Backbone:
């Protein structure tokens, strides 16, 4: 796990305490959220569509007022502070680049409107455009820019204000796949270069995992788990997070069998039988989620010497270049998916109907009590 | 293939321009629309008092119109009213459109409908209503120029500002609110964001609305007729009174000048629009 950043002496730059936002009757868009974001972190809000990510971000920016709860930015309560007086800036999902202004005027707008002297303006705009590598395009109008360039304008326009927190709403969703990949790295590097706290919203788990220092996973307005990417992936706290982040084989099990001699929990999974898992914490009786990631499954043509092993038939497979995904069905009729890295060059040596032994280590099993 | 190349291909489904009946309809439409105007302009140069047969080219009637003091006075009145009412109705209409677009308030739907009412109410009813209204409140008459044009101007504003509001509102419907929020986020006050982001965006709508207001005011007859007095004759009212005696080339000449002015202003507006609204789609409804 990563070391805790920003030492304990420094207060978090963003504190969100019990924040709820209701739009009329029904389920709140954001439901009693508590978050602390340390200075200098690249923090991701991740969740499916409609889970309240944008609403939370807009409350930080000042475009929505929380129904209940408190937001502190750099130690100060921002309730009642209008967006133009908050030490945060936002990169909008649509980029919202002013269409009637040149690139220079767009980036300079935030300085002009607050009355910065012309010379300072020019210097800072030049610097910001350099940061996002848009030098030389000052005179262009937005409609003469590509989508990626427009996004850089939006970034530069926010960065030129030197905010304490930069908010980004799905910053990469409007870009094509290749550019998105490149911009991920660029955003991370940019964050390091400017040293500003970034809070970004995304519904793309790959994006969150590859970019963020820490991720808050949201569902129906609530934060389900906050953790760094590896912890989130390897130790999800609930079925929702396990299922939402990455791919997973998820089973419903019962803990009726108790513990074995080594003190491991024995879970009964219909069709798979009793599976031992190391899980020292006590568990409630009843339904327990049991999950294992597809890449943790090992496949062999002969029976391996393993505790958890099943014989299965390959139902289907899909080739993804770097890996192959297999869809298997065990003798007990349970479906499993496995991914196998394509480490060797050459044709895929698998066919439908082939029989394989599937095994995994008890330690790779996730126990999900929620 | 070689056989087909020799013959002319049958017109495709969208090639209306190649169908004979379509061309004919088009021609007929243009003739009906523009022949009267063309005749009007042509006969303004006709060297004849009776304006029926062509007797030769002359500028005489332009000179005559220019020297007709009451005609010029009516003309100046009309332009003054048009300018003032355009200005006022553009501002009012824009504010109304922005208010309806921006805010949520009780009875917003009825408000919007009531505002558009002057567009659908028959002009004659508006005229009578205006006459009754100004009489009822005892609007002063006999004021010095240009104050005596007040009643007409107010009447013009009241029927032309809904047109501006409708046009501007249509344009605002496509506005990306994130632009306004971006400006606020970057430190602009509400007023600064309005001035720097919303107004430039609305500009094509403003120009179109203003143009509409101007032409509506300039050629309005019915409502003006009811609100004008003997000392506040506008151009259309004056022309009407002249025509009642006879259609002279003088009337033609004055009308031609009016057409020229309208075209000129439209041209200027379009040019301005093309320059400022650079490649933005005009949001006309
Ligand atoms: N202004 C509003 N008025 C009423 N309901 C709203 C408003 N804004 C958001 N909501 C509702 O709040 C919920 C959360 O919306 P939000 O935009 O925060 O979702 P999101 O997580 O950003 O989703 P997406 O990934 O689709 O952008 C949704 O159910 C949405 O319908
Ligand atoms: Mg969103």
Residues:
């Amino acid at each position: 796990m990563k070391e805790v950043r920003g030492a304990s002496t420094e207060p978090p730059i963003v504190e969100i305490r019990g924040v709820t936002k209701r739009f009329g009757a029904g389920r709140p868009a954001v439901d009693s959220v508590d978050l602390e974001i340390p200075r200098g972190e690249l923090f991701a809000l991740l969740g499916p569509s409609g889970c309240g990510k944008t609403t939370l971000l807009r409350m930080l920016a000042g475009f929505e007022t929380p129904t209940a709860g408190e937001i502190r930015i750099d130690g100060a309560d921002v309730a009642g502070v209008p967006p133009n007086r908050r030490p945060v800036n936002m990169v909008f999902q649509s980029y919202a680049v002013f269409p009637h202004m040149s690139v220079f005027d767009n980036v300079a707008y935030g300085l002009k409107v607050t009355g910065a002297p012309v010379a300072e303006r020019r210097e800072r705009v030049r610097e910001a455009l350099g940061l996002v590598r848009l030098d030389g395009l000052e005179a262009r109008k937005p409609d003469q820019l590509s989508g990626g360039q427009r996004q850089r304008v939006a970034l530069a326009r926010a960065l030129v204000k030197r905010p304490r927190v930069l908010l980004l709403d799905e910053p990469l969703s409007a870009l094509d796949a290749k550019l998105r990949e490149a911009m991920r790295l660029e955003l991370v590097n940019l964050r390091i270069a400017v040293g500003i706290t970034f809070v970004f919203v995304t519904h793309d788990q790959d994006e969150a995992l590859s970019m963020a220092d820490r991720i808050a996973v949201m569902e129906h307005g609530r934060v389900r788990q906050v953790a760094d990417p590896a912890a989130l992936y390897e130790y999800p706290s609930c079925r929702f997070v396990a299922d939402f982040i990455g791919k997973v084989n998820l089973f419903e099990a019962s803990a009726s069998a108790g513990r074995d001699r080594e003190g491991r929990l024995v879970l009964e999974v219909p069709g798979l039988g009793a599976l031992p898992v190391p899980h020292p914490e006590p568990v409630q009786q009843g339904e327990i989620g049991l999950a294992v990631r597809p890449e943790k499954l090992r496949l062999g043509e002969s029976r391996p010497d393993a505790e958890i092993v099943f014989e299965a038939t390959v139902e289907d497979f899909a080739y993804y270049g770097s890996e192959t995904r297999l869809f298997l069905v065990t003798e007990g009729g349970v479906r499993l998916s496995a991914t196998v890295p394509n480490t060797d060059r050459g044709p895929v040596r698998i066919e439908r109907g082939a029989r394989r032994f599937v095994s995994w280590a008890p330690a790779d099993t996730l126990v999900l009590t929620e | 293939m070689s056989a087909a190349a020799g013959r002319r291909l049958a017109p495709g489904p969208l090639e209306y321009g190649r169908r004979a009946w379509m061309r004919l309809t088009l021609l007929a439409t243009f003739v009906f629309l523009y022949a009267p105007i063309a005749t009007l302009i042509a006969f303004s140069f006709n060297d004849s008092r009776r304006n029926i047969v062509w007797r030769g080219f002359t500028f005489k009637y332009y000179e005559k119109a220019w020297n007709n003091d009451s005609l010029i006075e009516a003309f100046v009145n009309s332009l003054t009213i048009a300018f003032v009412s355009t200005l006022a109705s553009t501002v009012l209409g824009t504010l109304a459109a922005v208010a309806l677009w921006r805010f949520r308030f009780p009875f917003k739907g009825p408000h919007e409908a009531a505002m558009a009412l002057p567009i659908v109410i028959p002009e004659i009813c508006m005229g009578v209503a205006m006459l009754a209204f100004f009489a009822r409140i005892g609007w002063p008459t006999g004021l010095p120029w240009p104050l005596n044009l007040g009643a007409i101007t107010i009447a013009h504003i009241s029927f032309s500002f809904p047109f501006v509001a409708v046009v501007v509102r249509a344009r605002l419907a496509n506005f990306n609110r994130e632009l306004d929020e971006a400006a606020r986020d970057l430190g602009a006050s509400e007023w600064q964001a309005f001035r720097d982001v919303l107004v430039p965006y609305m500009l094509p709508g403003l120009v179109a609305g203003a143009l509409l207001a101007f032409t509506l005011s300039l050629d309005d007859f019915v409502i003006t007729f009811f609100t004008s007095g003997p000392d506040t004759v506008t151009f259309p009212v004056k022309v009407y009174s002249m025509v009642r005696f006879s259609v002279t080339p003088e009337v033609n000449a004055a009308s031609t000048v009016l057409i020229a002015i309208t075209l000129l202003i439209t041209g200027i507006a379009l040019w301005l629009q093309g320059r400022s609204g650079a490649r933005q789609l005009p949001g006309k409804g």
Observations:
- Chain A is about 20% helix and 30% strand.
- The two ends of chain A are 23 Å apart (CA to CA).
